[in-house]
Specification:
This protein has 16 helices and 15 strands. With 447 residues, it is an alpha/beta fold. The strands form 5 sheets. The protein has a 4-stranded parallel sheet with strand order 4-3-9-10. A 4-stranded antiparallel sheet has the order 5-6-7-8. The radius of gyration is 27 Å and the shape is globular. The structure holds zinc ion (ZN). The site of zinc ion (ZN) has 3 residues, from loops. Belongs to the class-I aminoacyl-tRNA synthetase family. Its cofactor is Zn(2+). Monomer.
Length: 447
């Protein structure tokens, strides 16, 4: 039985899905105004690994992760670049797809975008006003946190703690609010900003509302798992819960999962420290699979310390596992021994996706394989376990090797050594390579 550390209850709980063998999960995605940084990548890799383990266990996973494409940062970056907010976000969505593909992250079931959910967002906000949970103030719409049950329970805070913290605030927005803690569901348009028509005048949604709307529209009023970085517990996820449960009267998510931070050389990563690394830049020098392996093999809730040595170690370890995977097969293997590795892997991973322990099992198993235990059943099991960590296997035959064999075949034919030429052709065919004799020479394709 998979156990999940649930941030809401601060305890390890048995995972029981709403629908047998199905997991509906919603993971907060990036604001697409720049290339993703290593912290975004950590979150994406952590939840992709969790998804892959659910799939390894036989679950069907509906994996939804949004793109925030309406936001102050996007408006600012688009103005600076002299392009529209849509052009800017399109560019960084494409970059996100490319970077995450290199990290071996499976495409989400859906990546909803805010601009495609404007009608649903307006309808959701209208319902909150009708139900008395929200109010209009000079074209803005605010959610009344005082009406929310257990507000900020997720972040282990009380309304009283938060009120003390907010008591000194003085600014124009705070003046419009009934309570400084109330948060914006809708923001009236400012001069020159992108906006949409609404019953409260032209404006755009606040940040938190998009996830409540897209999660419930796509996955229903109650979802199995909602996740994201630990920095999202408050205010983002706290506010998502408040507005979703106010609207539907139902529990928004049954399990809340949060991944830990990334430190660089033991320091918190930040733009001001100059250690803020984009994945796009990092992939110029570090192999995507190595980076993936490094990120995936740390337990997702623990902080990660990113160092050059850690990347080097990941490279060495990944190479060992991949070399083990490509070993030639041996005679039949003791199935009971294989089962002990499968069981140990499951015990490790069922314990809140403890990939650090899971990968230890893989190394023990690799050692056993290297001592001559590698039949078809072992290879199949080993490969499935490696895939949980996002390790993929390149075509066994490299292009260079194919070209070399084709040259040898051409030389054999020129020497009228047809037996050798035919043998090479058959060898290539066995590897799925088809040869085509054309006027320009020999062409080849993979079947
Ligand atoms: Zn979100």
């Amino acid at each position: 039985m998979i156990k999940i550390y649930d941030t809401m209850t601060r305890s390890l709980r048995d995972f029981v899905p709403l629908t047998e063998n199905v997991v509906n999960m919603y993971i907060c995605g990036p604001t697409v105004y720049n290339y993703i940084h290593i912290g975004n990548a950590r979150s994406a890799v952590a939840f992709d690994t969790i998804r892959r383990y659910f799939e390894y266990c036989g679950y069907t996973v509906n994996y939804i992760s949004n793109f925030t494409d309406v936001d102050d940062k996007i408006i600012k970056a688009a103005n600076e670049a002299g392009i529209s907010t849509k052009e800017l976000s399109d560019k960084f969505i494409t970059a996100f797809m490319e970077d995450t593909a290199q990290l071996g992250i499976k495409p989400a079931t859906q990546n909803p975008r805010v601009i495609n959910y404007m009608d649903e967002i307006i309808a959701f906000v209208s319902t909150l006003i009708d139900k008395g949970f929200a109010y209009v103030a000079e074209g803005d719409v605010y959610f009344q946190v005082a009406k929310s049950k257990n507000y900020a329970k997720l972040a282990n805070k009380t309304l009283e703690d938060l009120e003390i913290g907010a008591s000194g605030r003085t600014d124009a927005e705070t003046d419009r609010k009934e309570n400084p803690l109330d948060f914006a569901l809708w923001k009236a348009a400012k001069e020159g900003e992108i906006s949409w028509e609404s019953p409260w005048g032209p404006g755009r949604p606040g940040w938190h509302i998009e996830c409540s709307v897209m999660a419930t529209e796509i996955l229903g009023n109650t979802i199995d798992i909602h996740g994201g970085g630990a920095d999202l517990e408050f205010p983002h996820h706290t506010n998502e819960i408040a507005q979703s449960e106010a609207k539907t009267g139902k529990t928004f998510a049954n399990y809340w999962m949060h991944n830990g931070f990334v430190n660089v050389d033991n320091e918190k990563m930040s733009k001001s420290l100059g250690n803020f690394v984009t994945v796009h830049d990092m992939l110029k020098t570090v192999d995507g699979q190595v980076l993936r392996f490094f990120l995936a093999t740390q337990q997702y809730r623990k902080p990660i310390n990113f160092t050059e040595k850690a990347i080097h170690d990941a490279e060495v370890n990944l190479k060992y596992l991949k070399n083990t995977h490509s070993l030639p097969l041996t005679d039949q293997v003791n199935q009971d021994e294989l089962q002990t590795y499968l069981d140990a892997f499951q015990v490790a991973m069922d314990d809140d996706f403890n990939t650090a322990n899971g990968v230890t099992v893989l190394f023990d198993m690799a050692k056993w394989i290297n001592s001559g235990n590698y039949d078809e059943t072992v290879k199949d099991a080993f490969e499935k376990m490696l895939q949980v960590f996002g390790i993929v296997f390149e075509e066994e035959v490299l292009d260079e090797d194919i070209e070399k064999l084709i040259e040898e075949r051409q030389a054999a034919r020129a020497n009228k050594d047809f037996a050798t030429a035919d043998r090479i052709r058959d060898e290539l065919a066995a590897q799925g390579i088809k040869l085509l004799d054309t006027r320009e020479g020999v062409r080849w394709t993979r079947d």
